[in-house]
């Protein structure tokens, strides 16, 4: 909550500073041009904020979680798109109003005669393409690697937009203080991405030298991969977190898949457990011992760091049991574990859960059956855990189950700050 409030406060403070410099720079006589300049400034600020959200800085990620940061990144991205579209439309129509040119020819004239405008047009075109492929209807039809490759062009758009702002930005050049402010904003944003997305992963992997030490089939379609390395006791990983894993074979090195730790880190090895849901996870069972591993992370706020109560409820669905099993290993205090699966055969790692529950004095409930009727409806949850409103609740499973459970917990009156979850698309 503190990190989230701090992030909001940081954005609000920068909005105030941008408005101050905007008013200090003076207004143009044309209202459309004034609106164009204002939307351009907000577009630039949101673009810098966007970079901060995707920088994967450990301090932010541990407190907010990559799934929430990714969600904010998505909505900020569309805000950037609309702000820059508005900037282009207002500026073009504003200059066309005071000239004899129509808007299309006015835009062409600006691109040909004003330094930096052509770069801005190219940047806007890139952002529009990225916005289109990020829309849900397109995202579902693209392979993750294709979508990610297109998304990398965002950095090209950022550089082009920044050079445009330097060349013609009235607010940017209005005073030395304003110039220093905007260089500072862009410098911090780009440095955050450089450190969080490049320097830190490279340094950690060079330090820890990760390799596959064992591959164990848990069932017909679920496999666990054990990873060892150097100085793993110094890797700041916690139960409930996940890594983006790359297994450096000739046919897999370019694939990065998010898998949770399925056992609490012990300083000697890491373990991930995955269900064969796609080509990436299905191929894990064919990994050879000794395969080099490049892991980005750890990521996620789904940890005991955010506990508010001494006792807990852990609810898992399907292979979402992996971070739940790791959390149970680390938790102190009484815990109730509820594991929801279609059939007994789908209960991956159930034997380990039984042993852990016995060792830690936890209650374990295996709930089986089809999705309907809902066997984790409010009345059933209250029966399994009568004091659920006095416990922290950790959830991980498929999105439909998660959404239903969050609604059930709200109906039961469980305070929002006691509910902790990681979306299955990142955790499983």
Automatic annotation (TrEMBL):
Q: How does it sit in the membrane?
A: Multi-pass membrane protein
Give the protein name, as stated in the record: Ferredoxin reductase family protein
Q: What one GO molecular function would you report for this record?
A: 2 iron, 2 sulfur cluster binding
Q: Which cofactor does it need?
A: FAD
Q: Which domain of life is it from?
A: Bacteria
Q: Which coarse location class applies to the principal site listed for this UniProt protein?
A: membrane
Q: Where are the transmembrane segments?
A: 7-28, 34-54, 75-96, 116-138, 150-168, 180-200
Keywords from the UniProt entry: 2Fe-2S, FAD, Flavoprotein, Iron, Iron-sulfur, Membrane, Metal-binding, Oxidoreductase, Transmembrane, Transmembrane helix
Q: Which InterPro entries match?
A: FAD-bd_8, FAD-bd_FR_type, Fe3_Rdtase_TM_dom, FNR_nucleotide-bd, MRET, OxRdtase_FAD/NAD-bd, Riboflavin_synthase-like_b-brl
Q: Where in the cell is it found?
A: Membrane
* Residue intervals of the FAD-binding FR-type domain: 205-305
| Gene Ontology CC | membrane
